[in-house]
Each structure stands twice: as structure tokens, then as C-alpha cells.
Design brief:
This protein has 258 residues and is α/β, with parallel strands linked by helices. The chain has helices at residues 13-25, 54-67, 70-81, 87-98, 112-134, 156-166, 212-228, 236-242; strands spanning 4-9, 31-35, 45-49, 138-139, 145-149, 172-176, 181-185, 190-193. It folds into 2 domains: 4-125, no CATH class; 135-254, no CATH class. It has 8 helices and 8 strands, in the order βαββααααββαβββαα. The chain has a 5-stranded mixed sheet with strand order 4-5-6-7-8, covered by helices on one side. β1 (4-9), α1 (13-25) and β2 (31-35) form a beta-alpha-beta unit. It is elongated and about 65 Å long.
């Protein structure tokens, strides 16, 4: 009996694709892919560490594109961004099916991995739309519109186009506190950045870092919201259905400290 092989990668999408490359190049029949940050408590296994190399990742992705439609490629990436534990192995099993089928063939939803792919992709897509709807920018003293978020899934790469297109004339930053990185638009390009000042213990931007006009706007908006809100017609159940409570922390009108 051959021992199982644990493939360890750096957590990036390119690193994951390089893991696929290693499995096929070395003809590893019984492999499990794991991030470096995940612990391995299994005995009697072989551990292989993957070096992320762009040209190998490109070769694998080129092979995926030859066998799949654009929507399938997008769903594949969304599922990877879900960060659900063990999702790499669902994607690996999915690719094994993809590489033996003809492009444009019917999707077999009776296959548990393909069904899970479809379900997870929809979950990530919903979170993407919610971030696009509920992100609230605050103007800081350095003239950057800044927002902090903590999405369930790693959707920042998916919302770049939406915000770049909608707010093309202003500098903005959306920072994921849960994953300690952000996307910053400088009026030309979007960059991936990390900032030491942000932490999950301090989820709000301190008032000292907000511009005076921003503070005035927030006070006016909160006052307006409180006056137009008709208490006798309040329906908390319906309100939470359309606006889940975990998103309230992003909304100015829900900030009772102003």
C-alpha cells in the first residue's frame, strides 16, 4: 500500500495550480492538497512542498481553459476563493473529470464534486454582490475613500472591476480585516496592499483619521435616516431578511455612536 502524499502550497491561486502541475508531472495517484497554514495530523504520509512558479501555473490554467467554458473558469476561481476547508481537493477531483471530457460536454450534476462546485460558486457570488451593495466608504484626511470589510469568503479579487468602474475618478481602498490585505485604486491601477494600522480588534476607522467633511456628512445622514424611519411601520424580521445583521457594521445609519 502506497502512503498518501500531502501537497503543501502557499495559499495562492498560482500555488494551487502548481500543486496540480506537480500531481500530474509526478503521477501522484493519491494526493491531498493543503495550505501551509493548515495543520497535518495524519500519520504515514509523504509531504511535498510546492514552489510557486508562474510558468507552471500558466500551463495548468491554459489546459483548464482548453477544456472549459468561460463561466466554468469563473466558477472554478470563485470556489477557490471560498477558502472552505478541503476545497482544493474538490477542485482537484473536478479537474480530473474536466481533463478527460470534451470541451462543451454536458455538466454531470450527479457527480458530488461538480454539484458542490456549483453550490459553493453560488454562495461566493452572493457574498460578492453583498459586498458591492454594502461597502461604505469614508473619506480620510489623506483624501482616500476607505472601507473596511470582513466577508465570509475572499471576494476582494471579484469586486475590483465593479468599484474601479463605478469610482474611477477617486482614490479608494477596501481593506479585508479578516485576511489582512486590501485593494487600493490610485486613479490608474488597482494594487494589492497590506497595512499594519488595520486589525480585527479595531474594525472602525478612528474619527481622527476621517476628514471633517466626512464626519459632518455622517452626522447629517444619521439624522436624516432617524427622521424618515417610521417606527410604527418597522418590520425587524423583513429588515433582517433583506439586510442581514452581520452587514450592519458597514452602514453609517447603523452607527449609533454618532
Amino acid at each position: 500500500m502506497n502512503p498518501q502524499t500531502i501537497i503543501i502550497y502557499d495559499g495562492s491561486f498560482d500555488g494551487f495550480l502548481c500543486s496540480i502541475f506537480m500531481i500530474y508531472e509526478q503521477k501522484i495517484s493519491d494526493a491531498i492538497i493543503r495550505k501551509e497554514s493548515d495543520t497535518n495530523n495524519q500519520l504515514f504520509t509523504i509531504t511535498e512542498h510546492v514552489i510557486t512558479e508562474k510558468h507552471k501555473a500558466n500551463r495548468v490554467w491554459k489546459g483548464v481553459k482548453l477544456k472549459t467554458t468561460r463561466k466554468e473558469q469563473q466558477d472554478f476561481f470563485k470556489v477557490f476563493l471560498s477558502e472552505i476547508k478541503g476545497v482544493e481537493n474538490t477542485l482537484l477531483n473536478y479537474l480530473k473529470n474536466v481533463f478527460i471530457k470534451k470541451k462543451g460536454g454536458n455538466i454531470d450534476f450527479s457527480n458530488t464534486d461538480i454539484l458542490k462546485m456549483s453550490q459553493v460558486s453560488k454562495m461566493v457570488e452572493r457574498e460578492k454582490h453583498r459586498m458591492e451593495a454594502f461597502v461604505r466608504f469614508q473619506l480620510t484626511t489623506d483624501s482616500i475613500y476607505t472601507a473596511t470589510v470582513e466577508p465570509d469568503f475572499n471576494v476582494l479579487p471579484l469586486i475590483i472591476f465593479h468599484f474601479k468602474d463605478r469610482y474611477a475618478d477617486q482614490k479608494w481602498l477596501i481593506y479585508d480585516l479578516k485576511r489582512s490585505y486590501g485593494i487600493y485604486y490610485d486613479l490608474k491601477t488597482v494594487q494589492i496592499i497590506t497595512i499594519d494600522d488595520f486589525s480585527r480588534r479595531n474594525t472602525k476607522i478612528s474619527p481622527e483619521k476621517l476628514s471633517s467633511s466626512e464626519l459632518e456628512f455622517q452626522m447629517l445622514w444619521t439624522t436624516y435616516f432617524n427622521h424618515v424611519n417610521i417606527k410604527s411601520r418597522k418590520n425587524n424580521k423583513l429588515h433582517k431578511q433583506h439586510l442581514p445583521k452581520r452587514y450592519w457594521k458597514y452602514l453609517t445609519e447603523k452607527n449609533t455612536t454618532l
